[in-house]
Amino acid sequence: MRSEYLFTSESVSEGHPDKVSDQISDAIVDLFLSKDPYARVACETLTTTDLVVLAGEVRGEGMIDRDGNWAPGAPEEIQKRVREVVRDIGYEQKGFHWQNLTFENHLHPQSSDIAQGVDAAGNKDEGAGDQGIMFGFACDETPDLMPATLDYSHKILQRMAKDRHSGAAPFLEPDTKSQVTLRFKDGKPAAATAIVVSTQHKPGYHEGAKEAELKAYVKKVVAEIIPAELLSDQTVYHINPTGKFEIGGPDGDAGLTGRKIIVDTYGGAAPHGGGAFSGKDPTKVDRSAAYVTRYLAKNIVAAGLAKRCTIQVAYAIGVSEPLSLYVDTHGTGTHADDKLEAAVASVAREKLGGLTPRGIREGLGLNKPIYYRTAAYGHFGREPDGEHFPWERTDLADALKAALA
Fold first, then answer.
1. pLDDT in tens, 267-280
2. Does the global pTM surpass 0.85?
């Protein structure tokens, strides 16, 4: 690793059109899982000017049977939930309004060809929902064990959204993006060199005293999020650098589920296997295996076994056991990486029942309606809260140290 370098990550708010789509898709996942813990959901959402369209494959008791027959009231319940998501984000604007938008539901039963690979039958364990590679990552740059550039980018937008919802910043509208550039020295954040925030705003906040108010507010938020020792007179701010930003959200740019996978994960500081998370039930290893590898990588760092850790797993559709397990501590580990791989495999078997789809799902308690909250401000680096974000716990640290003793 270079001794000094610049690195940048971005985040987008809950009102960004792609994040609106992600939240709708995960609200549908939660709706199905609330009726049937073993529901199958692959829900894609398109959002554009006054339009929301759902498409994908689903299966679940209380919602839709394998013949495509909807349970009484299920289509109405889906539409109601979609409109609630849009309302809760705060879209009551010309061009995208939760009451006035047109809604289309094109969900249909899951393919029987896919189901036969995933479902357990006889002596066959539950198989992976698709082939693919998944990565987990952790580092010691922040208390959340996340890359600092992404952690600060998320937290800036979370604070702005909180102020918008509470009325503390009434000039803000839902669609916002942030970007943080840090200078690193010897692997640690040393200075914030550039901050970018582009936020949708009420009419008139792009000029004169109102623009000055908005920019002063953003700088105040940044100062509350980024440690003071990283900010200085040399920090460059780009706040709404294009000027006026009144038309935003799906009215300004169409949104699709799964287009912000780097925002969802590690801000570019770690590899990504390519699969999106939102809209998928936990039999899809794109989601569940990415969660468990984060869980394991975070516990390695929390245990003091490495300062940085990347874990990869790979699966084949219909096959339960992973094809590979790879651990890389980037030269920061206290033990050889092959020893850590063996420890990870052993602890996963002991504590989770293995790295099979069933082991991950049951070990982390993933067959619950816990996904809507993941769909904005990152799936990782969040505070474990009851049943939510169980992959952020650090309760495997002692077991990993013991396995290496």
1. 999 999 999 999 99
2. yes
